[in-house]
Write a structure and sequence with these properties.
Helix content is 62%, strand content 6%.
Amino acid sequence: GTAWASVMRPQGFILIPFVFLGLAYAGRLRAAAVAAAPAVGLWLLLLMRNHAATGAVSAYLSRWQHDAPSQSTAVVVSNIGALLHAFFVRGFLGFLLRSSWPTALSAAVCLALSVLVALGFARLAREGKVPSGLLLAVGGFVFSYFIGHALWVAIDPHYLLPALPFALALSLVGLDAVLPARERRAGVMLACAALLGLLLLQDASAIARLRASPPAGRLLPRETLEWVARELPPDGLAFSNKAKTLFLYTGRPATPMPHDRDPETFRRRLLRTGVTHVVLFPQEHLSAEWERWWQDFYGWLAVAPRDYPRLYVNEKESTAVFAVRRP
């Protein structure tokens, strides 16, 4: 499980050392080694494969190395505030909640729920009903995961999904600890029902919006995929902002790429990695920074028709295919 967690999301590697430490703390050194060794091995193989294919171990790491030096202390503090809001307001009170909240109300909710999570963790540690090794693994993972994202350059609630179940459970334990004895059971059940109701309301709202007007970026571009499967050579290599989708539906080799910041670096990388075509799909952006990069990237292709002749355009599906002409 730890091995696949590190493959599914780059931040999954944070789980590896804390699973190892939790098992080691419980005196199960052999089990710790058995759990950690294949996870570390698979993670290293993935990084080696990425470096061989793109020249970088991870697009996320490349982006962080480029942007992190420019982040001031104020930016990091702002990130922490945005993370707390995304985690406790959006996560607890309706995942992907889009409505704006007054700063004071958001801060009060974040503080109250943070205290409940801390009280819940302290109660479990004090009572000893949960193994200390498990608490060490859970607490270390959630804290490190949060700190890692505080230093990241983009904030979005879906990043926090791996830590959300632990925080939800700890907050309910904390609520049970602060309520009067006679009201604990009813209070915790009411809190569970309220959280479930908020999540169901958000899900129903999201489904209704999608059915009423599906975004272009979430519809399968069948005409474009059929054209790619028919026209692009099977021995070529395409760069795409949706490389996995492209390979899955066309069988054509495809690769994503780190976020280059200028057209010269971008072209050198295309030529060095053997990319023969560029296939662009509509992009659901996670942040304004991602949107600026994607617009720049599209512009580099559009203004250099000699280097990137346009082969296919589908205005209905908002897609385009370019060739990469070598010097």
